[in-house]
Amino acid sequence: MATTAFSPQRAAPVLPPLYAAATGDRLRALTTLAGGLAHNLRSPLTAIMGRAELVGVRRPELHEAMHEIVGECERINGMLKQVTGMFALETETTPRPIDLNDLVERVCDFLRFDRHFKHEIEKEFRLADGLPTITAVYGALSGAFMAVVDNAVTALRAGMERRLVISTRPGEGAVLLSVQDTGCGIAPELLPRVFDPGFTTLDGDCYRSAEVENTGRGYGLAYAAAVVHEHGGTLEITSEPGAGTTATLMLSVS
Q1: Are residues 179 and 233 in the same domain?
Q2: Integer Cα distance of 245 and 233 in angstroms
Q3: How far is CA 100 from CA 32, 177, 225, in A?
Q4: What are phi and psi of 204, to 5 degrees?
Q5: DSSP state letters, 109-162
Q6: From first to last of its 254 residues, what are the pLDDT tens digits of the chain?
Q7: Is 12 part of any domain?
C-alpha cells in the first residue's frame, strides 16, 4: 500500500484560473437558477395540495389517496428547499465555524439525488461525536469534500464490491475526514501524480474493462487539496491496486 500527500507548489498556481474561479461563477449561476426553478415549482405544488385536500374532504372514500398526494407534494417541496439551501451555502465566501459532521451529512444528502450514489453504492458513516469546530469557507470546503467523494464514487463504478466508508475522528490539533472506497485502487507509480492538475486514472485498464466512461478532467483532487491547504490542512491519499483508495483530509481546529 502506497501513500502520497499534496504539495502546494504543484497545483495551487494552476487552479484559480482553470478551475476554482470558473466553479465559483457556475455555482452562483446555478444558485440563481435553482432559486427561480424552486419558486416556479412551488406554486403548482401548492395548488395540487390544496385541491387534493379539498377532494379528500368532499369525497371521504378518496381521503387516503388524497392524503398520499399531499404527502408526496410536501416531500418534493422539502427536496426543493434542500437543493436551494445547499446552493446558497456553496456560494459563501467568508470563513466561519463549521461542524464537520454537519457538512458531511448535508453534502451526502445532496448527493443522494444521484441515482448511482443513492442506489448502487453501500454507504457506511462513522462520524465521531463531540468533534471541535473548524473555521473554513463553507462553499470551498464542501466543494473539496464533494470532489473527493466524486472521485471515490467514480472508482466504485468499476468495482465488484461497491462500498464507501466516510468517517470523521479527532486528531492532534485537527479533525480528520476520511473517504474510503473499494474501487480499482491506484498503481504506486501513478500515485505521486494524483494531485497534478489535468491528471486522471480513468483511462486505465481497470476502468476500460468495466466500460466506465472517462468523463473526468483531472482537476478534482488538485482543487480539493489546494482548498484544504489554504485552510491550513493537508490531503493524503493511500491506495492499493485492486483493494481501493482512502483519502484523508486533515483540518486544523478553530
Answers
A1: yes
A2: 20
A3: 26, 8, 17
A4: -80, 170
A5: HHHTTSHHHHHSSEEEEEEPTTPPPEEE-HHHHHHHHHHHHHHHHHHHTT-SS-
A6: 667 665 554 444 444 444 444 455 555 555 555 666 676 777 788 888 888 999 989 998 998 999 999 888 888 877 777 666 655 555 567 889 999 999 999 889 888 877 778 888 999 999 999 999 999 988 888 888 988 998 898 888 776 788 999 999 999 899 999 999 998 888 889 888 888 877 777 666 665 554 555 455 677 888 888 889 888 899 999 999 888 999 999 999 86
A7: no
Q: Where are the alpha helices (DSSP H) in 21-114?
A: 21-58, 63-90, 100-111
Domain range for 112 is 2-7+92-252
The answer to whether residue 21 sits within a structural domain is no
Interatomic CA distance for residues 71 and 66, integer angstroms? 9
Domain boundary among 51, 67, 88: 88
What does each C-alpha distance from 38 to 25, 30, 31, 43, 202 come to in angstroms?
20, 12, 10, 9, 35
Domain check: are 82 and 108 in the same one?
no
Total structural domains within the chain = 2
Grid coordinates 480539493 are at which residue?
224
189 assigned to some structural domain: yes
Residue 49 included in any domain: yes
Amino acid identity at 27: L
Q: What is the gyration radius of the CA atoms in the chain, in angstroms?
A: 21
Cβ–Cβ under 8 Å, residues 247 and 90: no
3-state secondary structure of 209: helix
